[in-house]
Amino acid sequence: MKFQAPANLNIVPFVSVDHMMKLVLTVGVETFIRELAGVIEEDFRRWEVFDKRPRIGCHSDEGVIELMPTSDGRLYGFKYVNGHPKNMREGRQTVTAFGVLADVGNGYPALLSEMTILTALRTAATSALAGKYLARPDARCMAIIGNGAQSEFQALAFKAICGVNRLRLYDIDPAASRKCRANLQGQGFDIIIAASAEEAVEGADIITTVTADKNLATVLTDNMVGPGVHINAVGGDCPGKTELHRDILTRSEVFVEYPPQTRIEGEIQQMPEDFPVQELWQVISGQRPGRSSERAITLFDSVGFAIEDFSALRYVRDKLEQTGLFCELDLLADPDEPRDLYGMLLRCKAAQVL
E strands within the chain? Predict the structure, then answer.
């Protein structure tokens, strides 16, 4: 994708929440997810060119605030994101985010965007992309345990990319499941609300766990997972937060985004440092196979990685010219004479007097 610097160097395109919603609706939710997954897939195929490091987290008893940076040598991107499960009880979002894309050549930002909605879309797109390579090709029924803010995006992504058309929903709060079912009405799903997690996974080809509580939980026990199932473990994404019993991991073929980060934050934080995992980018690029057999249990231990956010920002930026869904933000001081930054103040003062 061709990168073009803004014509006016002190102006940065800004995609607000309103712009993002209109962009998603203009493109279409499922089309947006499919196209975004394609960009993530493209970037995973060139994984080795990226600068990679675990995200930088500031943890507290209340939650976490993180920065997620990466660069392909031409563009630089980062995301600011928080995770505060208690926020829901206060009427706030558990996760909020914004991101920046910049030109490595001059360091100038080229895009500032909301990423609360975009993160939900990129997480779903990455989950379904992993499912495309790891789930059985005939998988059509998915259990979703945890029916909060991400559940509808996950459902629509697996429908758009993997052909899932049957959902079995469970949440400890029945109102969340009813909300999810209502939001997905008319979207081509056969939906059942289960009375327990055990009931939800009955007959499911894919199990998505996407709960919010920041603790070492056991959403799935070993006896709930049968042969041939693909597990999409999304909720365990920080130290001290897991969803799966460790016995499931020992029975599964485990795939991760970036091992140094996942060993700190993912389901495999429960396991020894030498616990064997495979990297998803190697499967996508054809360097390694996906599932080994029809009866194998595959597990995508998803924690989210900076390259996915980079891909999402890249995708959004390339949509702006044709949609115009952004505003111009006067973000950068850019004096006529680069060394005369103070002179900008004097000229502003003179203009105010006039």
Answer: 11-15, 56-59, 64-71, 75-83, 97-103, 109-114, 141-145, 166-170, 190-193, 206-209, 216-220, 230-233, 242-244, 253-256, 278-279, 298-301, 327-330
What region, left, alpha or beta, does residue 252 occupy, with left being phi > 0 and alpha being psi -120 to 50 degrees?
beta
DSSP string, 218-261: EEE-GGG--TT-EEEE-S--BTTBEEE-HHHHHHSEEEES-HHH
**pTM for the model:** 0.93
* Catalytic option among 237, 247, 301, 318: 237
72 is catalytic: no
Mean pLDDT lowest among 56-65, 143-152, 268-277: 56-65
Q: In what order do the strands lie in the sheet with 327-330?
A: 56-59, 64-71, 75-83, 97-103, 109-114, 11-15, 327-330
The tens digit of pLDDT for each residue in 155-180 reads 999 999 999 999 999 999 999 999 99
Distances in Å between the Cα of 160 and the Cα atoms of 33, 36, 127, 132 are 8, 12, 12, 10
Residue 278 DSSP code: E
Q: Count Cα atoms within 13 angstroms, Cβ side, for 174.
A: 5
pLDDT at 8: 61
CB 49 within 8 A of CB 66: no
Domains of the chain, earliest start first:
11-117+307-345 (3.30.1780.10), 127-304 (3.40.50.720)
pLDDT (tens digit, 9 = 90+) per residue, 44-75?
Answer: 999 999 999 999 989 888 888 999 999 999 99
In the DSSP assignment, the letter for residue 135 is: S
3-state per-residue secondary structure call for 181-214: HHHCCCCCCEEEECCCHHHHCCCCCEEEECCCCC
The answer to whether 13 touches 111, Cβ cutoff 8 Å, is: yes
Cα-Cα-Cα-Cα dihedral of 303, 309, 310, 314, to 10°?
A: 150
